[in-house]
Design a protein that fits this description.
Distance between the termini: 60 Å
Order of helices and strands: EHEEEEHEEEEHHH
Number of strands: 9
Strand order of the largest sheet: 3-4-5-2-6-9
Radius of gyration: 21 Å
Length: 211
């Protein structure tokens, strides 16, 4: 049991709070299949000529993808994008060959984890039921290209946070809380559209024969 004046469901894509208030995600599910592979590769940073970066775009016909260092040391991420149906990287034994094909660099690759994720364009049909609100991924999901996800979640929290504080302090009213969805939803719609445009211009689309 939870006793509170207000509840904000910032509990992610599989939101229990969203389910509890009966809100439904509307839009397009499954724009693409992708993988996040985390691996360890001593020497990889010095094995290419491109210099240090947070992310490298690998544009090729075999394994278009993103790759980059994680934190410090020899830990990296590898993200094949728009993976064809039937291709599975959940088998950790298959992942090193994918990395070799994508990078052209033959090193010992120790796979630490590999999981599939699906890019979608989804928006909740309702952000609120009485004293319960939704914020962040609980009410908007989009392809993660552009850095919008965390930024929108923080902005949701700022917008809703001061309004709840105003009501609890006694100088805000019901109309102020009603403005949360009215103000945030147009922003979410605009950013979802932008993220989908970014998603349509990855290494898969940039590849041309002869590059």
């Amino acid at each position: 049991r939870i006793s509170c004046d207000y509840l904000v469901g910032a509990d992610g894509a599989r939101s229990t709070v969203r389910e509890g208030i009966g809100a439904k995600m509307k839009g397009k599910y499954g724009l693409s299949r992708n993988y996040n592979v985390v691996f360890r590769a001593p020497g990889l940073a010095a094995a290419h000529r491109h210099g240090p970066a947070t992310m490298y775009w690998q544009i090729n016909a075999d394994a278009p993808s993103l790759i980059g260092p994680m934190d410090r040391g020899d830990k990296w991420f590898f993200m094949p994008t728009h993976v064809p149906e039937g291709v599975k990287l959940a088998d950790l034994a298959a992942a090193p060959d994918w990395i070799r094909r994508a990078t052209g660099i033959d090193l010992p690759y120790e796979i630490l984890s590999s999981d599939e994720w699906v890019a979608s364009e989804l928006l909740a049909d309702n952000y609120r039921d009485r004293r319960v609100f939704l914020a962040g991924d609980a009410c908007h999901l989009h392809p993660p290209f552009g850095g919008y996800g965390m930024n929108m979640g923080i902005a949701d929290g700022v917008d809703l946070g001061w309004k709840l504080a105003a009501v609890l302090d006694g100088w805000g009213g019901a109309a102020l809380l009603d403005s949360y969805a009215r103000e945030r939803r147009p922003v979410h719609e605009f950013v979802l559209e932008e993220a989908v445009i970014n998603h349509s211009t990855l290494g898969n689309q940039l590849w041309q024969a002869g590059i």
